[in-house]
Design goal:
Shape of chain B: elongated
Strand order of the largest sheet of chain A: 2-1-3-4-5
Strand content of chain B: under 5%
Number of helices of chain B: 6
Structural class of chain A: alpha/beta
Helix content of chain A: 40-55%
Largest sheet of chain A: 5 strands, parallel
Structural class of chain B: mainly alpha
Oligomer: heterodimer
Number of strands of chain B: 0
Order of helices and strands of chain A: EHEHEHEHEH
Largest sheet of chain B: none
Distance between the termini of chain A: 17 Å
Strand content of chain A: 15-25%
Helix content of chain B: over 70%
Shape of chain A: globular
Chain lengths: 126, 248
């Protein structure tokens, strides 16, 4: 399982990377905003995207929309991990086709639970 | 500054004479009265001039829309920034304590394993060099068994302390986002002040258009206690509930 972690704060990328490794996901790459992430997603064979929302350059919500609009990436599971906690934003993310939404600050158990739920759903749909 | 009443007026002269004669006559009370009267002429002029300048400045500020901007900064944005920065102190304080607590709890666990291992190591070396009696070997076996018994539990504990330290580092992202907003505000204050300085130049006659840049507030960033957005959800549970109501 190859995972792309997108966040403009390198500390947060490292936290998520370590939590994922703890969950048994060792194959992770990092990008600091949507503009860097999108070409990586298009050229790499990623299975899962974990992204922040508020980033300079391309924001996470626009990255999500770009992913859904890309024929090759349209079905890529996307988890938003963000400090943005307004109702209308969560609704917007849901409408854009997000698979999970974790609000910062979060704990390891929440991240684990959301990731497991996303993959359970994908397996059930197959 | 132009005074409407000249210092060379008859009234001033009369008071000056009064002052001299009261001093010469040793009448202190009267001398002070004259002195006050003389300075009052001056003060009235200064107050009038100040009033005129204030009105002029006020009218110009209103004309340029700067006064409302600055009062908004002073009334809302600066206190808002102060609260956000206080929250930064709280968040970093909590992160530091969380880290220190985890370290303080992990160190005795490491020491316990370290002591148990080094005790075994000494006896093990004696065993390798065939220097151990049968009784001592039985004791060593018990110690090795005991060490293995606690090891797995203690390593799990240490790992969980390390995970706590890992998670505590999320303060950098949270506070970084908050500080970025405050930097934006400081930038805004700077722009307004530069506008004021430009304006004081234009008060002398030269008219200048002051650039007005609104603070960008498209994204909310981390919620700050007491400053939550009206529609902000308070916990991951509320987020989950909203998502499940949307069919997630």
């Amino acid at each position: 399982m190859k995972i792309l972690i997108v966040d403009d704060f390198s500390t947060m990328r490292r936290i998520i990377k370590n939590l994922l490794r703890d969950l048994g996901f060792n194959n992770t790459s990092e990008a600091d905003d949507g503009n860097t992430a999108l070409p990586m997603l298009q050229s790499g064979d990623f299975d899962f995207l974990v992204t922040d929302w508020n980033m300079p350059g391309m924001e996470g919500i626009d990255l999500l929309k770009a992913v859904r609009a890309d024929e090759k990436l349209a079905n890529l599971p996307v988890l938003l991990v963000t400090a943005e906690a307004k109702k209308e934003q969560i609704v917007e993310a849901a409408q854009a086709g997000v698979n999970g939404y974790v609000v910062k600050p979060f704990n390891a158990a929440t991240l684990k639970e959301k990731i497991e739920k996303i993959f359970e759903r994908i397996e059930a749909a197959q | 500054m132009v005074f409407s009443e000249s210092i060379l007026s008859d009234r001033c002269l009369e008071q000056a004479r009064g002052l001299v004669s009261s001093i010469e006559g040793g009448n202190e009370e009267k001398a002070i009265d004259y002195l006050r009267e003389i300075s009052r002429i001056n003060e009235t002029e200064i107050f009038q001039e100040l009033g005129r300048l204030t009105r002029e400045l006020h009218d110009t500020l209103v004309g340029f829309g700067i006064e409302t901007d600055i009062s908004k900064l002073a009334e809302n944005d600066i206190p808002d920034a102060r609260e956000r920065l206080s929250h930064v102190i709280n968040v970093t304080d909590q992160a530091a304590h969380k880290t220190l607590t985890a370290v303080e709890e992990a160190i005795p666990v490491c020491e316990e394993l370290e002591n148990s291992a080094s005790k075994i190591e000494i006896q093990w070396k004696r065993f390798i060099s065939r220097d151990l009696s049968a009784d001592e070997f039985r004791e060593l076996s018990r110690e090795i068994g005991g060490h293995l018994d606690i090891s797995s539990d203690r390593y799990t504990k240490i790992k969980s302390y390390l995970n706590e330290i890992l998670m505590a580092q999320d303060f950098q992202d949270i506070t970084g986002q908050i500080i970025r907003r405050v930097i934006g505000l400081v930038q805004d204050v700077e722009d307004k002040l530069v506008g004021l300085i430009k304006l004081s130049g234009s008060l002398d006659g030269e008219e200048q258009k002051v650039e007005r840049k609104p603070i960008e507030k498209a994204l909310e960033g981390p919620q700050v206690p007491g400053k939550e957005a009206a529609t902000a959800l308070k916990s991951q549970d509320e987020v989950d509930d909203l998502l499940s109501s949307l069919g997630f």
